[in-house]
Amino acid sequence: GFCNCWKGFCRLVMVAAWCRKPPKRQVFFAISSSALLAGIIFACIAACTRIVFVTLGTRASSSFYRRPSSNRLRERSRHLRFSSSAEDAATGPAWDTSAQVLCDGVEGCEDDDARAWLQEGYGWTRTSKRFWRASRKEEQPVAEAVQGVVEWLKPRGLAKQEWVKKFPIVVGLTADELEKSRQTAPSYLKEDEAFLRALRANPKLLGNNFDCLAEHESCQGHCARCWNT
């Protein structure tokens, strides 16, 4: 639209320049300078007005297509309701006792950190649901199990807020599961020092306790906890 307006303006200027030349033959009328100037001004106003309307129309259409779909809005609403229900559920004696265990045993841990980690460890969040799958869904924390995890992490120098926040699901594991992670680790991680060095670099490895290639010849669908993922 802008290009067409610009071409029309250029043609009008060319016509105006031609009209200012003395005609080669007699004409029956002549365009005055004031009328020519008025025509040029009118053409410019028309071109600018068209550009403005085209621009506004383009922005309006693009903003319309950027609107979130109804499915997106429902998903967002479901996520907000889920977050609200998880926060409301993180109360009660079991949560208070377990959170206190983490605050006392994990260096730098605050109450808000502890409750958020417990939601991950006991299947109350989206990420934890992908990890636990059908084995755990929105359970109440067990202070004794949490204490066992803290006692397993402490002598290895892993009971720190900076480390646990990278893999908060660990607070929902048991000491036996943590030992099984070390036992099922690949051969190059069998030694304690190599295993701990790998955990410090990637805390999520502690959630692995299955090796499909060692026990089977194909994938068994435990990818969230498999060493070969």
What does this 3D model show about the protein?
By secondary structure, the protein is mainly alpha-helical. The protein contains 11 helices and no strands. It has helices at 2-20, 33-65, 70-89, 93-105, 111-121, 126-132, 143-153, 161-164, 175-183, 192-201, 212-215. Helix 1 packs antiparallel against helix 2 (33-65), helix 4 (93-105) crosses helix 5 and helix 4 packs parallel to helix 7 (143-153). The protein starts with a helix and ends in a 14-residue tail after the last helix. 20% of the residues are buried. The model is unreliable at 25-30 and 79-84 (pLDDT under 50).
Cα-based radius of gyration, to the nearest Å: 36 Å
Indicate the structural class: mainly alpha
Mean pLDDT: 78
In DSSP terms, counting alpha (H) and pi (I) runs of 4 or more, how many helices?
11
Shape descriptor reads: elongated
Measured by DSSP, the beta-strand proportion falls in under 5%
What pattern of helices and strands is seen along the backbone? HHHHHHHHHHH
Return residue spans where pLDDT drops below 50 for at least 5 consecutive residues. 25-30, 79-84
End-to-end Cα distance, whole Å, is 55 Å
Number of strands: 0
Fold blueprint:
Elements lengths: L1 H19 L12 H33 L4 H20 L3 H13 L5 H11 L4 H7 L10 H11 L7 H4 L10 H9 L8 H10 L10 H4 L14
Helix pairs in contact: 1-2, 4-5, 4-7
